[in-house]
Design goal:
Blueprint (H helix, E strand, L loop, with lengths): L2 H29 L7 E5 L4 E10 L2 E5 L7 E4 L3 E14 L4 E9 L8 E7 L2 E6 L3 E6 L8 E12 L4 E13 L3 E14 L2 E16 L5 E12 L4 E17 L3 E16 L8 E16 L4 E11 L7 E14 L2 E12 L9 E14 L6
Antiparallel strand pairs: 1-2, 1-5, 2-3, 2-9, 3-4, 5-6, 5-9, 6-7, 7-8, 10-11, 10-21, 11-12, 12-13, 13-14, 14-15, 15-16, 16-17, 17-18, 18-19, 19-20, 20-21
């Protein structure tokens, strides 16, 4: 095992251990109900529900009850009124973000339902309920602003002693207008009599909303090791400005443009190219589709046309499809891929793969989007 691969795996393991340590108090807080369940929902059919409001996404309001293990989904369109003293972050279709406590103001039957968001005595804003894209509980407590997601899967075949495993983890820290995230992904495939194939990736992302509606800027620092492409270590630094082309509770589409710098050190061979530095344009697009309470599709694609080596293009894509099984437990299918149209001689131009497994999430589910 190369020193670079070992270093990335150690960094990833340290990140994973940190996420597990972070998840422990968040999970304990989830088990304890993270406070008294004194929020009240008034449904259009006359039902009244005392609960704890967790989040709203894709028209699905997640709440927890004293007498129900985990969370349940309530259709947002069926909610007539609500009252809560908790602190929430609310995102609207035009990209506006508000923070405060929630209540639904009384309106006439022929008027649209208004959500009252209060940030202090006499300081409140009225929002059309149908304009809300998502909302999530936040806190003045630093640790309660984190979200942690862990996923893993393994396949073993006795016939050729084949073993495949994948593990991924992410932690996000979110505030009303910005967020930071750390992601680690590792995949290993080994067969009897064949050298093991490994791929390890570590990314640090940052995101901030701009004053203009639905505009934002973002940056990323990434590390990649791939035996398939002969990459011992690829360091990528990129950033740019983007806009949400569509921003609703169920569908989110964004486009970002900017610049990227890429340093690649290839594994030594007789025809090794050593280290390459590339300056490139960055075009990134992402798609998020959510259906009521059960499924979630996340797709991102980036293209980097090299400025310092005209005619060379780099492409990267990641896709994940999640199916909610129970509470915060999900089953997921994911795909990763990376392509280089002009790799060094004897090196592979692509690396891609599929994986499936189970995932579990902890903490604050809200992120800016």
């Amino acid at each position: 095992m190369s020193l670079t691969r070992l270093a990335i795996m150690r960094v990833g393991a340290a990140c994973l251990a940190s996420m597990l340590l972070l998840a422990a108090p968040l999970r304990a807080d989830d088990d304890a109900g993270s406070g008294e369940k004194n929020d009240v929902l008034y449904m259009k059919n006359g039902d009244r529900m005392t609960c704890e409001i967790k989040s709203l996404d894709a028209g699905s309001l997640q709440v927890s009850l004293d007498y129900v293990e985990g969370t349940i989904s309530v259709q947002w369109s069926r909610v007539q009124r609500l009252d809560s003293k908790r602190l929430f972050i609310v995102t609207l279709e035009d990209g506006s973000v508000y923070t405060g406590t929630l209540s639904i103001a009384e309106t006439l039957p022929d008027e649209p339902t208004k959500l009252q968001l209060s940030s202090g005595p006499g300081n409140f804003v009225l929002i059309d309920k149908t304009r809300i894209v998502n909302m999530g509980e936040t806190s003045e407590d630093f640790w309660q602003r984190f979200a942690v997601n862990l996923q893993s899967g393994i396949i073993y075949s006795k016939g050729n002693s084949s073993t495949q495993y994948n593990i991924s983890s992410s932690v996000t820290y979110a505030r009303p207008r910005w967020a930071m995230g750390l992601d680690f992904n590792s995949a290993l495939s080994s067969n009897s009599g064949v050298n093991a194939s490994t791929r390890n990736q570590l990314n640090l992302d940052a995101y901030h909303l701009l004053p203009w509606k639905n505009w934002f800027y973002a940056g990323q620092v990434g590390l990649l090791q791939s035996t398939e492409q002969g990459i011992e270590l690829r360091t990528n630094v990129s950033g740019g400005v983007g806009k949400y082309l569509q921003h609703s509770g169920r569908v989110s589409v964004s486009l970002l443009g900017g610049l990227g710098w890429q340093n690649t050190r290839y594994s030594p061979t007789e025809q090794s190219q050593g280290t390459q530095d590339i300056l490139a344009l960055l075009v990134n697009s992402s798609l998020r589709v959510v259906t009521f309470s059960k499924t979630n599709l996340d797709l991102s694609f980036s293209a980097l046309p090299a400025l310092s080596e005209p005619g060379r293009f780099f492409f990267n894509t990641n896709a994940a499809f999640y199916v909610k099984l129970w509470s915060n437990l999900t089953y997921n299918l994911s795909f990763y891929g990376s392509w280089d149209t002009r790799p060094p001689v004897t090196y592979n131009a692509s690396d891609y793969g599929f994986s499936s497994g189970l995932g579990w999430s902890f903490g604050n589910p809200w992120t800016p989007q």
